[in-house]
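[job 0412] stage=complex_fold ligand=pyridoxal-5'-phosphate status=START
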Amino acid sequence: MNARKALDLDWVRRQFPALATDEVFFDNAGGSQVYAGVADRIRDYLLTTPVQLGASYARSEEATAKVLAARRAVAAFINAPHDEAVVMGGSTTSLLFQFASALRSTIQPGDEVIVTDTDHEANVGCWKRLAEAGAVLKTWRVNRDTLELELGDLDALLTSRTRWVAMTQASNVLGTVNDVRAVADRVHAAGARLAVDAVAYAPHRLPDVAASGADVYVFSFYKVFGPHYAVMAVERGLLLSLPGINHFFIGPDDMPYKLQPGNVNFELSHGAAGIPEYLDAVAAHHGAGGMPRERWQAAYALFAAQEDALSARLLEYLRSKRGLRIIGRDRVARSDRVSTIAFVKPGTASESLVRHVDRARIGIRFGDFYASHLIDALDLRDLGGVVRVSMLHYNTLDELDRLIVALEGVL
Ligand SMILES: Cc1ncc(COP(=O)(O)O)c(C=O)c1O
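[job 0412] stage=complex_fold status=DONE, emitting structure tokens
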């Protein structure tokens, strides 16, 4: 079979039962719809293996095998070199808090930590708390004119005291994809480590821990067709060296349990392993073969093509509106922006635009999206933040045209 070049959207949408409605979901950066196979796996786990792990009776062994297999599947999906260094937990926010609290006793007064002002607070606040242990916090500020994080500005912040840099792989407001590999190389050359928030990236591009160069790489499955649950890959040597935050009798070699107090959620772990299965199903349906990562890459390439078509049309429409300000790159010329598009209409509260669109049964959203420092840096607080339209591959151009008709009434 020849590989198909364009997504079969009717087939794709049938994989997401919640899309069988006339309501349009353009709040995908808030949370995606859930792949039916993920929900089936959660149900299967709960109804067949609801027992405690680690016992010697048959059903417990079966449950243990399912949860371990899920971790291996997730590690493969994100290309984490060691599945025992893959930590799972309730959310990106909670995993980063867990990580930072493990790190705290390793911080010496004067150690420097760099955060950005474009990040979601999940990858800022936990680092700022290290100041209580004597860390000195610095901020890598967005260029207010270009809306980019400039590498030269990072270079000016890195010193021999820098221990950590925390940044996002894609901004949940700007939609910009950052070259985290280039940052990792600089950070490592300075003798420091890099933590990457991939929450706004993973729904649009295949996550790849090894290629990113990150020492910590984290994102949430509920943005990537899965359940409210998250994963954090930690560089193995680092995880081994960190003090644990679990019970005193959980040893330092007990990875990843040392960072998973209360253990993982069994059914959600099993469910999350359905995400790469979705990618496999997409690849198979469109005639793409090869090794697992080649198939998943093929699925994401199909996603990106559909998302680029949506972004190009929306950005073209927004550019045609005089006075409107697109908050982020205003074209999809390179594949360095995802289909999360923010804008403001100076003089008009962002909320009023969104409330108008609500009436057309189209879900978009306004606010700071917890990227609070970015909204302040760009002086957008008075407007109530930005209007954000966040699209995923299962959205159609017809849906987008409905949005444009609704926006026409107010822009
Ligand atoms: C870029 C980004 N990082 C982190 C988070 C926080 O994720 P969680 O809700 O899993 O804590 C979000 C949530 O919207 C986000 O968009």
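The longest helix spans residues 292-319.
[job 0412] exit 0
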